[in-house]
Design brief:
Elements lengths: L1 E7 L2 H17 L3 E7 L9 E5 L8 H5 L2 H18 L3 E5 L2 H13 L5 E5 L11 H6 L4 E4 L5 H5 L5 E3 L18 E5 L4 H21 L4 E5 L2 H10 L6 E5 L2 H8 L2 E7 L2 H8 L4 E5 L3 H10 L7 H6 L6 E3 L5 H13 L1 H16 L7 H13 L1
Parallel strand pairs: 1-2, 1-4, 2-3, 4-5, 5-6, 6-7, 8-9, 8-11, 9-10, 11-12, 12-13
Helix pairs in contact: 1-15, 3-4, 7-13
Length: 369
């Protein structure tokens, strides 16, 4: 019997953790899992300590006001790990939560293997984190090849796992406009900030394209809130957290309005032209401008260093700018085709030789055998 503790505080981490756990169980059914995660990992956990809905803040100042809560959660999780003597710890993304949690374990003389998936964005800001990570983790798995050098120079074993979009099937972009996807975020705080812009998009569609369908894929802990937000909308609306329904509707989707993040990369892999939006707290944006080294929010735009995918963020996200770009998404099929062509060129650089979950599970098996 082998016991693994998994900690993921974001939806993308929940997806990664769930698939790695399934892969591990296909090799060794004697492995058991406890941890922190979302609705997917909860179906495999023997014991779940916290859920994604307990992590609902983004940005420097938003997190500042939740520090007391997070310190208590870190204490609870680390005490659970120390008392239970797990064979291996797997942390996924969320460096500002997982790093202090693991550091506390190391300070308490925890000496079992701890591996981390998804590197902190040291290439964008706070590059000193690479050195700090190297002191407490046994191995780091990164999504992008260019990230390796930042950590290996400090002696941290760093392995390219590739991006989970490897598994997403691409659509054939036709330009037909029957269904548009709205992806307002995986946290309630994101949804609350962005929903006025999704309402602006709806108002435009109601007048100009009243017969289309708005499809909103979401998460179980957000589904009730989303349905409440759109309860008076008059266009046909499909809100679902069911995986099968989501996949069926993605096949019909020809355009998407997306909250910046992993969802944007997934939409790109599906060959769906998109507009990316995001909005941070004013003070978080102000201080971010001082320290952040990249000028884009979307990872494809960062990799290519130009606006492959149109994005409007923070103080640039206002009614006028939004409607200009949204109308372009809806009506400019030539621009959309160019977007898809450029996306596919960029995605070719992300290809890996072995499926990410399979590669990581092999490494974990080596650690616990």
């Amino acid at each position: 019997m082998c016991r693994i503790f998994v900690c993921a505080t974001e939806q993308s981490g929940d997806n990664i953790g769930y698939n790695i756990m399934l892969q591990l169980l296909s090799v060794n059914k004697q492995i058991t899992f406890d941890g922190v995660g979302g609705h997917k990992m909860s179906t495999i956990f023997n014991n779940q300590i916290y859920n994604l809905k307990d992590f609902n803040t983004m940005g420097i100042f938003e997190i500042f006001f939740s520090i007391k809560k997070y310190i208590k959660m870190i204490r609870v999780i680390s005490n659970k790990i120390l008392c239970s003597n797990y064979d291996l710890i797997l942390t996924i993304d969320s460096p500002d939560f997982n790093y202090p949690m693991v550091k506390r374990l190391r300070n308490k003389k925890y000496n079992k293997k701890i591996i981390h998936l998804v590197a902190p964005t040291v290439w964008a800001w706070r590059s000193y984190r690479a050195k700090k990570f190297s002191k407490i983790f046994d191995e780091l798995f990164v999504l992008f090849n260019f990230e390796i050098i930042f950590f290996e120079k400090y002696g941290l074993k760093t392995t390219l796992m590739g991006h989970p979009i490897y598994y997403i099937n691409s659509n054939n972009y036709t330009g037909n406009f029957n269904t548009i996807a709205f992806l307002p975020g995986s946290r309630l705080s994101e949804v609350n900030k962005l929903i006025p812009y999704f309402k602006l998009a709806y108002d435009y569609l109601l007048i100009n394209y009243p017969n289309i369908t708005i499809f909103i894929p979401t998460l179980p802990h957000l589904e009730k809130n989303i349905k409440c937000f759109v309860s008076e909308w008059k266009i046909k609306i499909i809100v679902s957290s069911d995986t099968k329904i989501i996949e069926e509707n993605y096949k019909k989707t020809s355009k998407a309005l997306v909250c910046s993040g992993t969802a944007s990369l997934e939409i790109a892999k599906r060959n769906i032209p998109q507009l990316v939006i995001y909005k941070l707290n004013f003070f978080t944006e102000f201080f971010g401008k001082i320290f952040i080294k990249v000028k884009f929010a979307n990872i494809i735009n960062i990799i290519e260093n130009f606006n492959v995918i149109p994005e409007i963020t923070n103080s640039n996200l206002n009614h006028k700018n939004f409607l200009t770009e949204f109308k372009n998404l809806i009506n400019n099929n030539k621009a959309n085709k160019i977007q898809i062509n450029n996306i596919n060129k960029s995605l070719n650089s992300l290809k890996v030789n072995e499926p990410p979950y399979k590669l990581v599970s092999k490494k974990i098996i080596n650690y616990i055998n």
